[in-house]
Structure formats: C-alpha cells, structure tokens
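Dear colleagues,

As part of the handover before I leave the project, I'm documenting each prediction I ran so the next person doesn't have to rerun anything. This entry is a single chain, and its sequence is reproduced below.
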Amino acid sequence: MGLTAGSTGAGAVDKGLTIIKQKPEDRVIALAGNPNVGKSTVFNELTGLNQHTGNWPGKTVTNAQGRYAYKGTDYILVDIPGTYSLMAHSAEEVVARDFICFGDADAVVVVCDATCLERNLNLVLQTLEITDRVVVCVNLMDEAKRKGIAIDFERLEKRLGVPVVPASARAGKGLDTLMDRVNEVSARTGRKRALDVHYKPPIEHALIALEPLLAGIVGDRLNPRWLALKLMGGDPTLLTALKEYLELDLMEDKRVRAALEEAWRWLTDRGVSQEQFGDQVVSSLVLMAENTCKGLITYQKSNYNATDRKIDYYLTNKWTGIPIMLLLLLLVFWLTITGANYPSQLLSDGLFWVQDRLSEFFVWMGAPTWLHDMLVLGVYRVLAWVVSVMLPPMAIFFPLFTLLEDLGYLPRVAFNLDKQFKKCSACGKQALTMAMGFGCNAAGVVGCRIIDSPRERLIATLTNNFVPCNGRLPMMISLISMFFIGTAMGFGQSLLSALLLTGVILLGILMTFFASRLLSKTVLKGVPSSFTLELPPFRRPQIGKVIVRSIFDRTLFVLGRAAAVAAPAGLIIWLMANITVGDTSILLHCAQFLDPFARAIGLDGVILMAFVLGFPANEIVIPLVIMAYMATGNMIEMDNLTALKTLLIDNGWTWLTAACTMLFSLLHWPCSTTLLTIHKETRSLKWTALSFLMPTAIGIAVCFIITTLARAFALA
C-alpha cells in the first residue's frame, strides 16, 4: 500500500507488464507469498534501488520488478501480489495465478512466515500443483527464534520435494543460500516429482478421467492435473487467461465438454455438488498442509504468542479498541503540530531569503518589473509557501504513520472499524484506505485496490476525500490556533489544538460512514461482502529504514507533486490579481460575484474564490485569501499567526467564519490530483463527477445549516 510515484498519478495508469531481458540468459523469478510474511522485504533486500513499478495488464493491481546479479547470473525478480490462495477470488489472486502459470518464470519463490508455517503452506501446495520449479523461503526466523519455535527443515524439504530455505530477510540472513537454491531450480531441465495434493476418491476419479485428455491438448505448457481440477471448479477467469495467453478455448472442444459432463455426472451421482466440490478442495489443501507439518515444528513455549494476544485483547476489544485508536490519532497529530512549527518557520525564512536573492538577480539582469513579479512574486512565492507549509508536517506525519504500519497496527484499525463499515454495507478494509488518505487522498484512492468487491471499492474511492489530507491539515491547525485556542503554542495549547483537530477528523470519519451508507442504499446498492483479515504479529519497527522510506517514497514524492501543480497555479493567480477591469482586479471581480452565495454558507467571496483557485493544491488557499485581502497582487506571507488573525478579523472574520472555512475545507471537492487518480482508477467520467459533486454538496449543506443556526440564535 505504499505511497510512491508508481502508485499515484500517472504511475497508476495501466501500462501492462513488460519484462525486458538485457540478455537472453537472464532468469525471471516470481516472488509469491501471503500478506505480512516479509515478501517485500526479501524483494527489497535483493534488488535494492534496481526496481520499478507498473500495473498488470488490464488490472489496477501494482507489480514491482527488480534486477539482481548473483554469481555471474542476472535475475529479474517479479514481486507478485500478496495473496492467501490462487483460487482467483480477487484481482490479486488472478494476477498471482496467471503469472505463475503463463509468465514464463524460471522459478517461483514462495515466502512463508516461520511463526505460522502450517497456514502458509496452503499457498505452497497450490503453487506446487501448477509448477515444480518452486523454492520455499521460510522467512522471519528471527521472530520464530524469539518465540521458541523450531522447524526441521531437512524433513520438510523431503516431504515437499522442493528446496526449503530458512531466512531472516530484515537482517539479510539466508538470502545467499536462497539464491543458491534458486539458481539450481531455475537452471534445471525436465520435471521433478514434488508433493501432490490428494483429494477425496470421487474427485480423484474425475481427475484421472480428465487428465490424459488435457495432457494431449496443453502438452507441457500447463500441469494437466491442476487444469482438470480448475475446469471442474468452473473458474471463468482461467478460461479467459487460456484464451489470452495460450490461444486455447477449451470449451469449444467437444471432447473436453463431453469429458467434463461425464466427470460431473460421476460426482453428482456420489452426492458432490458444485459448492461441495469447492469446499472439499479447500479442506483437502488444509488437511495436506497440516499433515505436512506434523512432527516438524516444536514449541519451547506453548504460549509463544501470549504477549501478542494480550496486546490484541486491548487493541481490538469492543470497549477499548476505538478509544486507543483515537488516542494514537491524537498523539500523532500532537507530535505533528508540536514538531512542525519551528522547522516550518526556519524553512520559510530560508526560502524567502532565496526569493530576495532571485530579486537581486533579476535586477542585475535588467529584467522588466512585470517579469520579475510574475516569476518571483507569483510562481516562486507560491512554491515557497507550499514547501514551507507542507514539508515539516509531512516529514513528521509520514514516518509516524509508517511506524504504525511497520509495527502491524493498521490491520487492527480495519478490524475495529469493520462493524461500522458493515452497517454502511461497505468493507472494513476501507479503514486502511482511509488511513492512507491522511497523507494523500490520491494515495488513499489507489489503496482502494485492496478491496475485492468492485462495489465496495468504488464506495471507498468516492468517499476517501472526507479524510483531510496533509495539504488541508496546516490550514485547519492555523485556524484552530487563531480563533479557538490562541496563538501562543505551549504544551496546553498544542494539546488542545490536537484535540480539536482530532474532533474535526472524527467528523470527517462520520461523514465517510454517512456517505458510504448513502451510496450503498442508492446508486451502489448491495450487501457487504466478507473478507479475510489477518492480524499480523507485532514486529519491532525498523526505524532507520522507516524514516528513509517515508521521506523518499512518500514525503518528497507528495511534495514534488504539489509543487508541480502549485507553480502554474501561482502564475494564474498572479495574472488574475494584476489584470484589472476598471479599477478592480479580475480576482476581486470574481470574489464579489461569489460573495452573496458565500455569505449564505458562512464564508465570503474571497474565501470561496480561494477554494476555487486552490483546486490544484489545497495548501495555497490561505495565501490566496491573504493576497486578496491586502490587494497586493502578489502572494505574501504573514510574519506570524497574530498578524494573520488581525488581518482576517479586519476583513470580517469571526469564529463562525473560521469554523465554516475548516468545515468546507474538510468536506469540499477533491484536489485535481485526487480527481485525476479517481478517473484513472474508475475509468468513468460519471463516477469522477460524483466524487466531485457529493462532498461539495455535503459541505455546502453542513456550512449552510451551521450558519443559519448560529445566526438564528445570535451566536455570530
């Protein structure tokens, strides 16, 4: 769920999976595994910076590829989506299965968690049904050792019939041995006998009847036994994949249809229905995994996971789970507010010092005044404001968020909120995408890919904007400080600011529930689907890697994207503020036109115009307001919050104006980057338009109601 250049914006567009070999002898290795087993850690440790991301053909599922040279051989590692099975119940499972079947991989590495090996073997067995070119990497051995878990790898390897390698990828241990075994398997010619999954007699009889026929059709391109099993299971995605990759339409073959009908007559006569067939296949896999592990795993402590369970008792308890979640949210915001003030001021001083040097350079060059004002006081000043306002909070917020992610807490958030989302006929995984929206709503929209149901994925996409992104938080913090707390930021004030900000965030979450339920009862009717949610073990965060990853993959990426849209916005704003019609600038003409409507919702024309012009980047809304009030024609920075509050009050601001500005910021339309991402994810102008109109209508309605009530009771 990483927020990277490859996961949002242009990087989120389907480009197709292209594996480019620099040399014909390069070997392609698929990297598979359950979620939370350290698969991406193995991938990152091996490939380092030699990797890139894209999308699978026709899927909004991200792939990652990386190059790795080992003992004179070049490998291309393909990190396929984390999945619990290959039964094609979700887009991730389809992608993983199709690449293992048709991706021409020289070997498949299946990464498992040493602390719950039996459950992870389910995926290993399904992979072995497709190919015998498998290496099992049992990762997280350091955690297994800490919990007193020992595994007999020699016997496990004999039972599976494929290499098994213990590893601790976070520490880089075992990876050389892993690549040695990968080299052996990928260089091997011919087939090797691996463990076969055995099913109940009726299913085995049907497989034996179908297997020879399919073997004559597919040859050595696919395992005919596995193909027979999938055809009997009635998997339409496999039929589509066979047409696409092998140009085979098995259902057009009369012999195949007749053999399938005969197999199902046999099964039906013995009381096996289509539903029972699927259940028996799954139960056979589970039983096989259990038998494979029997006698191989020893526990020094029977209560090895007692600590995790005790912690989870409080983190996921219906009485304590939500309060703890809110306290953690409050702590993150308090640290962000407290820590961002001084760096933001220092950064602002430095950037505006650079502005003075740029002005001197333009004077030295003899450039015309209008060119200096347009480029320096327009474009550069907007960029300087965006950077100084966004960078410090992001540099604090993203590492804190990533630490919670690395610790294993975020799945607990989804668990706690699952019941509330089900009441809205939505999916509990939406909580994870909502959490991503705190950093960037575009990233939250892309994160909705983890939701299997298309209906629920669309609900999560359309409602992600109700969580305020990093671009809106600084304005909310400033308004809370000026109008509700006081501009002196001691411990008490910063804590109270964090409390009020948390309250605003909770309102956004409530609006997410409201909008999700509204959509599920109208244009997106349906019942909530069930999903498997694994609560991973708590792990010690890798603080150094978290900081580096969050700064380079998240902070600088979001900052760069904001700067890219702020620069042209600065030019447009400068032109509107400096081109006059009569004695008034175009900017003020537009503000005066919007003023009557804006007053009805507790704002004024200048504020509403600033929101309109802030469409490319929410960070420039307050600077626009300042520019219009001072009628300078240039984007300016107030020295401190006290001076800014005086300016706002002199222009008619009250507590009601500040409250409605915060609420409208929370509830109004998404920024241009988020809308672009929504369009790329949904491929629909209709849903993109709804994602713009729905929050805007709700924001206008909420502000109008609050303004009307406040004026009716003479509170403003």
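The radius of gyration is 29 Å. Confidence is low (pLDDT under 50) at residues 1-16, 53-60.

All the best with the project,
I.
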